[in-house]
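To whoever is on call:

I kicked off a structure prediction for a single chain this morning and the downstream step that reads the tokens threw a length-mismatch warning. I double-checked the sequence; it's 644 residues and nothing unusual in it as far as I can see. Pasting both halves so you can look.
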Amino acid sequence: MNKVKIRHSFVFKLSLYIVICLVITFLSVLVYNYYECKRIIVEGMKKNVEILATSTIREVGSFFNVAQQITEDISLTLENSKITEKELLGLLKDVVRNNYEIHGCTISFEPYSFDKTKYYFSPYFYRSTKGVAEFIDLGDEQYNYFKRSWYTTPKQTNKGVWSEPYLDEGSVDLLMVTRSEPFYRTINGKREFCGVIACDVHLNWLDKFVSDIKILDTGYVFILSSKGAYIEHKNKAYIRSRESIFSLAERRQDVKLKELGKKMSDSQAGFERYYSYTLDKECFVFYAPLKETGWSLGVVIPEDELFFDLNTVTLKLFIIGLVGYILTMTIIIVLSTKMSMPLRTLAGATHEIGEGDFSASLPAVFSTDEIGMLSHSFRSMQKNLVNYMSNLQETTAAKEKIDRELSIAHDIQQSLLPYKFPNLKQIDLYATIIPAKEVGGDLYDFFFIDEKHLCFAIGDVSGKGVPAALFMAVTKTLLRAKISLSMDPSKILNVMNEYLCRENEPCMFVTFFLGILNIETGFLEYCNAGHPPPLVHTANKGFYYFNTDDAHPPLGIMADVSYVGNRLKLLPEDIFFIYTDGVTEAMNIDYVQFSEEKLLDLLVQNKNETVVNIVNNVKSAVDRHVSGAVQSDDIAILIFKYNG
């Protein structure tokens, strides 16, 4: 019992509801703040990375612009003027010596294009470890520059191109890239291809440049070639092994990485989530093209580092909120317990009252708030309840006394009815009565006036209960008292009616059917005082409603009425069935009556049954029709079969 009280106490529920509302509100604010701040951080980071990428692209582009500009200028010079071999070599030497970005430079001619005696002519100056321009001639059969991609590609495309990065000969991890520019001359009025100017650029400066870019703690920048090969990356193994983003995606079975590589190779720009296998965690990546070379720049930002401060602040806010909830819960419980203590004491006292101890003492509450009003109301209720229980005991005792008296009255009334049915070969007779209350106003009676005359009667007093029962007893007593006056039912009813009309202030009345049967001859003398017509069964007609050809009112209404009787001849096997209207007017819960038609059909179906079975079957049919509805009227049935 105590556990139930604690679990469902007012203090517990109040505290729980308040804290739940606070928790929901706080968590909603916390979640909204977290994701809104996250969105703002991502948007701000995107802008910063775009600025960084733009600056990086500009710096890298300016470096490669030198080589591109040099090749374009030399191409223009060679196309518009004649130049000697000495001037050509001096030009190449000055290019390498004066431009630190250039590792080497060559002007490679088509066969016999520069000198009619030279099939190969490809002078090349390069920067040595001493920082001076060294010379070699690339024109020989072993090197055969005519088949090199740096030569064939611009020749076929008729435009300047950058080569794919490649490892410098003599170095295992130093990348180099070549800018190739075709040049032409007008010969016999026709512009013809004469050779290629090529500048080699070492990418060691690019590694240092990219390494100096700091992206949070572990973020990094990477560069892809136009074919997706890694030119620069935090993981140097990718560069040494000539790894590409597509080969990495294939090895890792990473579809998203492959799609990213395709976008970057197509010179697209964008921002999306990215899993870095180098850092082994989720990241964001911003990518943009290097238009001068056809390469693509990628900036990788670790997600956990980007949101580290936000996650830290959110965790601290959550801890602060949790501590606040605990303090709030404690304060609410303490205050609620103190405020609700009178209620708990009052609840205990009312529990004792509910158990039957109406003298249980209620706690003294002197406050004028709702609790004080409640305590005052409980005191008034306790006083009223004591008075009510006292009155209830008296009323119950009185009701029990009335019930006992009604039970006795019921027994007395039932004792007034004949319950021993005649055991004669001339007649089978049976009757029953079912009062709607403990006592009722329906009656039946039968007795022998002499050895061969059977007197029987059935009646229905207006109303129910004790008054009807008393009126029924008077009617039955009158019948027994006046039957000795005559053998004519009409004369007997006239006398009974005159007596019942005297001092009948309640204006009660009784429908009454009286019959006297000669069991030897079968002649039935009868008189009907407003009672429902009986049903008669004969051999030639079966069951039918017997018209008594009278319009007499019930007994007890008018004293000056003259009742007239009639006569009926019964033959052997004829059945006489008479009842009160409680049978045909019995109603179900839908207020539908049993009806005279249904009674007639039922008797037709039971014509071959005994008189006892006929009565029992009628009672069962009425019960089924009523189907749980309260009995609305008394029921009485009397039946006999004349055997002759």
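Update from on-call: the warning came from a stale cache, not from the record. Cleared it. Sanity check on the structure: The chain is about 45% helix and 25% strand.
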